[in-house]
Amino acid sequence: MPNSGAGFADLLLQDGAIPVLPAFAKDAALKALAREAGTRLAMPWLLVYERLRTREALGATGFGGGVAIPHARLPGLASCVALVARLPQPIDWQANDSEPVDILVLLLSPEDAGADHLKALARISRTLRDSATLPALRAADTGEAMQAILARTTANAG
User: Fold this and answer.
1) For 82-137, how does the pLDDT look when each residue is reduced to its tens digit (9 = 90+)?
2) Which residues does 31 contact at the CB level (< 8 Å), separation at least 6?
3) What is the set of active-site residues?
4) What are phi and psi of 51, to 5 degrees?
């Protein structure tokens, strides 16, 4: 996995930053993320959605600070991939800090990813803990701007 000590811009799918994901509840957000990922990966979105729901049932993926990192393992993926999205308004995600969530990072990994999945989660969480990254993502008005922020974070971390 490239840049294992850095940010996660290299994990983003093409057009993998979504400035406004039209969802106003947790399940709607999971469906919207699944549709976006399914389209980009040429994979049935319902498979992605069911895997996300199954993982979410094990424990909410709210990371804290208004961020959630829903994640799942899927058959047919060659490597870990991600999408980042901003919600139009914060929603309850049952995060540990009880803060509503407005930034989502979807991580999808091959079923046999093992350590690579955990390393990708760690990279995402480290990037989002950076004090400048979240305000910049929230202020970005385009997907390109969001991707540029994550690319700068990756460059600074490496």
Assistant:
1) 999 999 999 999 998 999 999 999 999 999 998 999 999 999 999 999 889 999 99
2) 23, 45, 49
3) 71
4) -65, -40
Is 77 within the bounds of a domain? yes
Residue 30 lies in a domain: yes
User: CA–CA separation, 69 vs 25, rounded Å?
Assistant: 15
> Percentage of residues in the chain with pLDDT exceeding 70?
92
Q: How many domains does the chain have?
A: 1
Spell out the residues 6+ positions from residue 38 whose beta carbon is closer than 8 angstroms to its own. 44, 45, 46, 47, 48
In whole angstroms, give the CA distance from residue 151 to residue 157.
10
- Which of 94, 86, 96, 158 is CA-nearest to residue 127? 158
